[in-house]
Amino acid sequence: MNGRIPFQRLHNFRDLGGRPADDGRTVRTGRLFRADSLAKLGGADWERFLALDIGTVIDLRHSWEIDAKGRVPVHPSFTYHHLSVEHRPYDQPSLGPDVAAGPYLAERYLEVAHDGVGELSRAVEVIAAAGERPAVFHCTSGKDRTGLLAALVLTLLGVSEADIIADFALTGLASERLLADWRAEHPGAGPIWPGYGRAPEDVMRLFLAALTERYGSVRGYIANRLDIEDDVVAALRRNLLEAAPATGPQP
Question: Which domain covers residue 23, as residue numbers?
């Protein structure tokens, strides 16, 4: 189960549905998506995107990224929210080969988790308010900022830590195409960080472990730092969870 939806220019667009949650339920398919930059949409990709009937788009990038690369095309079928969760930008391609992806990126995620509490909280509220219309959130590669928000939302839906880590690692299926895009945009560039575009499981594992160490659990972090109201969590779960399909012989 990887939920990937093929596009020509988008490399990391996928459905978060189908994952088992608590109380015997599953995350609804076709209701919540994560993606790399939607500024790349056009042509047949744009038509495919509109066919998903998405009503809410959340852009997690910096303003300067949007100025440089653009945003999702304007369309009356959805509302657009810009919520830049990362307050301390860093340049992954320029990192040295001795920088281990797991510890380094987990520490950057912790920075986002502490600096971007307002934006992260608002993002969860926007997703919960989407109702029965699908929503999508994205950054540039659909890996780091997008992966962090996905982990928080899936936690609130009762998805296991193992499945959250597995979802994060699915970006590995898009890594080569993400790297090819970067090289096409930087012709003649020298060697770049070997971890660029990669999503090893230990990044998310270390990040979740650090939140648990500081707050008792990931839910503890959400309760103590994001201060999300109970009715928001209830709406999120009501909109995004469904009863698991029956298995075995039926009467």
Answer: 14-90+105-175+192-239
CB atoms within 10 A of CB 116: 23
pLDDT tens string 83-136: 999 999 999 999 999 999 999 999 999 999 999 999 999 999 999 999 999 999
CA distance 193 to 185: 16
Residue closest to 99 by CA, chosen among 195, 168, 164, 174: 195
Q: Specify whether the CB–CB gap between 119 and 84 falls below 8 A.
A: yes
223: exposed, middle or buried (Cβ count in 10 Å: 0-12, 13-18, 19+): middle
* CA–CA distance, 25 with 238 (Å, rounded to integer): 11
* DSSP state letter for 141: S
Residue 99 falls inside a structural domain: no
Q: Tell me the C-alpha distance between 43 and 20, whole Å.
A: 35
Burial 41-63 (b: 16+ CB within 10 A, else e): beeebbebbeebebebbbbbbbe
Over the stretch 45-73, which tens digit does the pLDDT of each residue have?
Answer: 999 999 999 999 999 999 999 999 999 99
Tell me if 30 sits within 8 A of 15, measured CB to CB: yes
The CATH number of the domain holding residue 145 is: 3.90.190.10
End-to-end Cα distance, the chain:
29
Looking up tokens 């830049």, which residue turns up?
84
Q: What does the alpha-carbon distance between residue 130 and residue 81 come to, in Å, rounded to a whole number?
A: 12
User: 0.90 cut: is pTM over it?
Assistant: yes
Instruction: Determine, yes or no, domain membership for 207.
Output: yes
